[in-house]
Design a protein that fits this description.
The protein has 14 helices and 8 strands. The protein is α/β, with parallel strands linked by helices and about 325 residues long. The chain has one domain: Alpha-Beta Barrel (TIM Barrel), CATH 3.20.20.70. Strands 1-2-3-4-5-6-7-8 form an 8-stranded parallel barrel, surrounded by 8 helices. The longest helix is centred in the middle third of the chain and has 16 residues. Bound molecules: zinc ion. The site of zinc ion (ZN) has 7 residues, from loops.
Length: about 325
Amino acid sequence: MRQNITLREVGLRDGLQIHPTFMQTHDKLAWIAAEAASGMPEIEVTSYVPPKLIPQFSDAGPVTEGALRIAGLTVSALIPNLRGAQRGIELGVHKLNYVMSVSHTHNMKNVRRSPQESVADFRDIVALIRSQPDQGRPVICGGLSTALGCSYEGRVAVSQVVKYAVQLVEAGAQELVVADTVGYADPEQVRAVFKAVLAEVGSVPVAAHFHDTRGLGLANVCAALDCGITMFDASLAGLGGCPFAPGASGNVVMEDLCFMLDAMGYDTGVDLQKLVAVRALLSQALPDLSMQGALARAGLPRGYVVAAERQAA
Ligand code: ZN
């Protein structure tokens, strides 16, 4: 078997943040539990933002607490600022995903700060985390949005991505996630950006977050795999988008990504059939949800043997 890949479900945050209908807390928790039971190792369950800003996340507390009761699951949440970090620490979440945009305009729209101000905020967040007792400190992940293009500014320079990646790591990021927030990337660009980032940030794990807006999501995953990336964000049924990125659409479809990786011989630890079955919970809970997914539509190829069984045979 090829090396392990760590998948991270982001649909509850990236997908639900733009969905107009509130998903009931018990439905969110049922989704989290079912996907964790399929073998998903990490789920970004919510975002610690003011409920007035995004009412979908007004139940961030109970969703986090419920998810933390699931044994073996890494529970993460998005934070835009220090207040979000405080909330996450109080709740005992495992990982905080801080987000800033590489492009100035998107960062101003999303968090009303310049990227440089966002790096300064990140230093304060790391200081807050380090002031906590060792036990139960959350892992802090630095996220770089619009790293492969911006719907306001167009192309984003590789040197800018590298600059902020290095600054976040120097400030104390234990992980990075490099995101194509608006789905502008192509595989050649992915290779250029990830190689440049990996060359500068050393041993810090780097995850990739792609949107399938222009149909290149899985191709971009392959390009990132070629660079040695082993952590990927994706969302069930390809949910996703950004409230401040006009024209952005969903993330890479998690089921299709799992199938591709399994077919290529990578170990994701996720049971494909169980994962696809989780879609039924979503469509029952939110009938107005637009769901994508080729594996769910077409099914597994006849006689398909999953990677773990091919290896055992
Ligand atoms: Zn996204």
